[in-house]
Amino acid sequence: MIKNYPNYDEIRNFHQQLYEMRLEYWIGHDLFTFQWWLLLFVFIVPWIIWWRLVDKKRIRQILLFGTLLMILVMFMDDFGVETHLWSYPYQLVNVMPRLIPIDQGILAVAHMLVYQYFSKWKQFIIANIVMAAIFTFVFEPLTVWLGIYKLENWRYIYSLPIYFLKSVLIKGLVDEFIMKKEIG
């Protein structure tokens, strides 16, 4: 029995149509709305604050932590959107379905500041539990209320361990890398 499945050109054409629909939606629905300006704000302002607060002596280590965290968050966000766990009705830019202002703005900066100010593991764990709870039970519901974030097949509580574990994993990687570099 031969399966009838779409060929590459059909998928590519459908993808092009989807891109055009997203662009039209973004221009007519997102661009210059309150949510769009808010996303712009939460993308830019945290980085300005970060630059004023970052320990310039440890900037490479902190940026390594932040960069690895952003890569992991973008991968997880893409997975969640593609598998219809969540979606984002408002976008700062229409090119990517992920929420870049949150992923690479406020979330990354908050994690880097926690990493900077709570360098000992016990303090880091406690600070990350608190931050994970705030992002899970305050910021996520707020973004849902604002229409920026839509839960599809996801519940807030699922985010709590992810917020916590991703930062612990990245701290472990960076600290191991930094320790090996200092020893070697």
UniProtKB/TrEMBL annotation:
Transmembrane regions listed in the UniProt entry: 31-50, 62-79, 99-118, 125-148, 154-174
Stretches of the chain forming a coiled coil according to its record: none
Record carries keyword Hydrolase: no
Alphabetically ordered keywords of this record: Membrane, Transmembrane, Transmembrane helix
Highest taxon listed in the record's lineage: Bacteria
Claim: Membrane is one of the keywords in the record: yes
UniProt-recorded name of the protein: Permease
Species per Swiss-Prot/TrEMBL record: Aquibacillus albus
